[in-house]
Specification:
Number of helices: 10
Structural class: alpha+beta
Largest sheet: 4 strands, antiparallel
CATH superfamily of the largest domain: Jelly Rolls
Order of helices and strands: HHHEEEEEEEEHHHEHHEEHH
CATH topology of the largest domain: Jelly Rolls
Shape: elongated
CATH class of the largest domain: Mainly Beta
């Protein structure tokens, strides 16, 4: 609650032109229909915040706020009844998330945590309302993003209920790959899939033995995208040790 109060206390913050704030908004698809002059003017009304790895970025008590990432990564997660952390979404530079019903975005009871050092711009409901008055198409941009995220969530649910561990891991690697690499630890990948870290470790060991990936420190390099695609569809059988399949 103290963190939420601190955020609310700076909602009225106003400063001179800040190039970091401008770059933060300009890189976000929400603002692509605004003239650069409008983006520059609007950037002076938002709040900029830095979070260290592991710090909580958002809690439900903060109310209606929208976060735009300039740098770093943020994970949106919930805790299972057994206390396990399950990552439901992951955001990177240029993406946005938060509790903003005005744009159709809700995170409900989920918390958001910085998975690495992160810089964000924070918008209040009043900020969003002013931006919508300037450019109503922002609402359409937001709904388009929401639709794509909903489809991704549906794909993940399908994977969880219809695929084994190997197919789930392969599908997630393909979904997250950037320039042929995935910058995730085994624990982070397990949190996103709702699997045990040990299971993910065994799967990655077998995928590497089959020549589909190369596991490096906190990076997974995709060597055979076609092979991984077949594994994600269950067309390639990658045997696991008995204890991993149990």
């Amino acid at each position: 609650m103290a963190r939420a109060s601190a955020l609310l206390a700076v909602q009225g913050e106003r400063k001179a032109f800040d190039p970091t704030k401008f770059a933060c908004l300009a890189a976000c698809g929400l603002f692509q229909d605004l003239a650069l002059a409008d983006v520059a003017a609007f950037s002076q009304t938002v709040v900029k915040r830095q979070y260290r790895k592991g710090e909580t970025v958002y809690e439900p008590e903060m109310g209606e706020v929208l976060f735009i990432l300039r740098s770093g990564r943020v994970e949106l997660y919930r805790l299972s009844p057994g206390g396990r952390k399950v990552v439901v979404a992951r955001f990177g530079p240029g993406q946005f998330f938060g509790q903003m019903p005005l744009l159709g975005h809700r995170v409900h009871s989920a918390d958001a945590e910085a998975s690495e050092d992160t810089l964000v711009c924070i918008l209040t409901r009043g900020d969003v309302e002013r931006a919508l008055l300037i450019q109503p198409r922002m609402a359409l941009r937001a709904m388009d993003v929401l639709g794509r995220r909903l489809r991704q969530t549906q794909d993940r649910l399908f994977d969880v209920f219809s695929k084994g561990a190997v197919a789930q891991v392969a599908a997630m690697l393909l979904r997250l790959a950037e320039r042929g690499e995935v910058a995730l630890s085994h624990q982070q990948l397990a949190d996103m899939l709702g699997l045990y870290r040990e299971t993910v470790t065994v799967v990655m060991r077998r995928l590497q033995a089959e020549g589909l990936v190369k596991v490096e420190r906190r990076h997974i390099r995709l060597l055979d995208v076609d092979g991984l695609s077949r594994a994600a569809l269950g067309e390639v059988q990658v045997p696991l040790e008995r204890r991993a399949a149990a």
